[in-house]
Amino acid sequence: MASRTATPLEHPALEDVSFAMALEALRDPHRLAMVAALAREPGQSCGAIMPPVSKPAASRHFKILRAAGLLKQWDSGTQRLNALRREEFDARFPGLLDLALAEAAR
């Protein structure tokens, strides 16, 4: 079986992320909850912020957030850790993440 670290994680340049991609990533309630959890506490493992869905569905959520430029992931030992690319994302889409997080808090 291949290691999960066999393929490097891809983090897009934010200028390659469209507004539609960003909105699509933030539209889903599970992904929005994951983003909100990372806004409160960066550097959490996938298991700590994984929504109550199957592992393949959770992997898809992580992939969508990474592709939309919201999520940075890295491996540390046996864990994959996550953080928001807050500064970069805010520079590309000013105020969008604040609006999404305010909605998540409602």
UniProtKB/TrEMBL annotation:
Domain HTH arsR-type: 21-98
InterPro entries: ArsR-like_HTH, HTH_ArsR_DNA-bd_dom, WH-like_DNA-bd_sf, WH_DNA-bd_sf
CDD domains listed in its UniProt record: HTH_ARSR
Top-level division of the source organism's lineage: Bacteria
SUPFAM superfamilies documented for this protein: Winged helix' DNA-binding domain (SSF46785)
Pfam families in UniProt: HTH_20
Protein name in the entry: Helix-turn-helix domain-containing protein
Species of origin: Amycolatopsis melonis
